[in-house]
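Bench notes, afternoon.
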Amino acid sequence: MKKRYSIIASLFLVFLNSILFSGCSGKDSLSAFRSEVLSENWKMQPTNKLTGMDESLISENGFDTKSWYDAIVPGTVMGALSTNKVIEDPTFGINMKNVDPILFQQPWWFRSTFKLSADDLKRDVSLRFNGICYRADLWG
């Protein structure tokens, strides 16, 4: 009886191992999921410079952002304006008192692009925004 139990237990362990390790064979090289970190090639523009424009066009390929400011994400509008020499460095001396608060009383558009491969169209792609402060409307 013990011998029969031992054989059944051994067969069960072999069966269990074959099931567990078959998922690790690497036969399917295309993962069903990919993560894209959007931390480069950002541009920004205040909404008042886009008045009258169909906002859905901003997310289209080929949208012209040549007149937009370069932006770093994560970052702030104030930081990008300082980097682009629109305002003087607000952390230096008393420069902060010269910053016009009207610049920050409107929403700003941030835009970046990334590439998807043909294989990406077959999987879920998670977009990672490492810089949204507290609120955003995302267009795709």
